[in-house]
Design goal:
The protein is α+β, with helices and mostly antiparallel strands. The protein has helices at about 10-15, 25-30, 80-95, 115-130, 165-175, 185-190, 195-205, 255-270, 285-290, and strands spanning about 1-5, 40-45, 45-55, 65-70, 105-110, 135-145, 160, 215-220, 225-235, 240-245, 275-280, 295-305. The chain contains nine helices and twelve strands.
């Protein structure tokens, strides 16, 4: 059980299939991954288990555990035990002492529960995580819009303008946390104020996007009163709707459709091959809005966390 020596060992690490395999070499080249964050358990030439963390380029700290696999076809019945041993060993060597491990993310098919083989594989990996102290945090829908779909047309109910500054955006982000259905937002509110959560979200994620902030829009009524906002962006892999929300006093009027249509139009104008988004499985109103706008549920994401 050891980290890989460098890019030349990605072939060993990629012996187990997963959708992120094709991104590993580029991520390693640009500094989103490091060899010391990429671990393998091998017996002879056979890869039995693997784990890898991802972070933003230039960061010294892993941000998310996004690869954890075990050999589902191993001839011995101890494949989950090997996964547990590898993860514990890798965490002890990779993460700062006594720090809370980064969140775990697993991309799965939308029907993963209905397919017996897929369900077993997902649940085996979740068992490995649980035996190291992790628990299911949230399941999310992964959504995608393609250029073949009609571009949503604007309505005349709302006007859209750019944000004046980051302070205006953070103030609106603070407001929309009231009554939020987003699990990450609700979790933040158990540990900090709404304003602190908004500032953290802005500084840790939104401010780091290199795509134009001119894409970001605030929606207003004809008299200028803010109704909500939408933040189209590019995360280095795909065009995305990174944040969309309606202010509490304006919820229930269907404005989410106008906001999503505006964000989709902005990204469609960039001639992107697809637009991606995600929302919690339990956030039914948001999921329905994406469906009405022509977004298709192409996958799900399992998030697990440690206390």
């Amino acid at each position: 059980m050891r980290p890989i020596n460098g890019p030349e060992e990605l072939d060993i690490f990629s012996q187990l299939p997963y959708v992120l395999n094709e991104e590993l070499a580029y991520d390693l080249a640009v500094g989103r991954r490091r060899p010391e964050w990429i671990w393998v358990a091998v017996r002879g030439d056979r890869l039995l288990a693997r784990a890898a963390w991802w972070s933003r380029a230039g960061s010294d700290t892993p941000l998310i555990l996004d690869v954890l696999d075990i050999d589902d076809n191993a001839p011995t019945p101890d494949h989950r035990d090997i996964g547990v041993r590898l993860l514990r060993t890798a965490m002890a060597a990779t993460l700062p002492n006594r720090s809370r491990p980064p969140e775990y993310s697993r991309l799965v098919p939308p029907d993963w529960r209905e397919n017996t083989v897929t369900r077993q594989a997902v649940e085996d990996r979740m068992t490995v995580l649980e035996r190291t102290g992790a628990r299911l945090f949230v399941e999310r829908l992964r959504l995608e819009w393609h250029p073949e779909s009609p571009v949503p047309k604007p309505t005349e109910r709302l006007a859209f303008r750019r944000f004046r500054n980051a302070r205006e955006l953070v103030a609106l982000m603070t407001s929309v946390l009231d009554g939020t259905l987003d699990a990450h937002g609700r979790d933040d509110l158990t540990r900090m104020s709404a304003q602190e959560a908004a500032v953290k979200h802005y500084e840790d994620e939104l401010a780091r996007y290199t795509s134009p902030r001119d894409w970001w829009r605030i929606a207003t009524l004809p008299d200028g009163e803010p109704v909500g906002f939408v933040l189209p962006a590019h995360n280095g892999y795909n065009a995305i709707i990174t944040y969309i929300a309606v202010l509490p006093t304006h919820r229930g009027n269907g404005y989410i459709d106008d906001l999503l249509a505006e964000g989709t139009r902005i990204l469609a104008e960039q001639d992107v091959p697809r637009i991606r988004a995600s929302t919690d499985l339990g956030n039914v109103p948001m999921a329905n809005a994406f469906q009405r706008a022509g977004y298709v549920n192409f996958g799900r994401e399992i998030n697990m966390t440690w206390n």
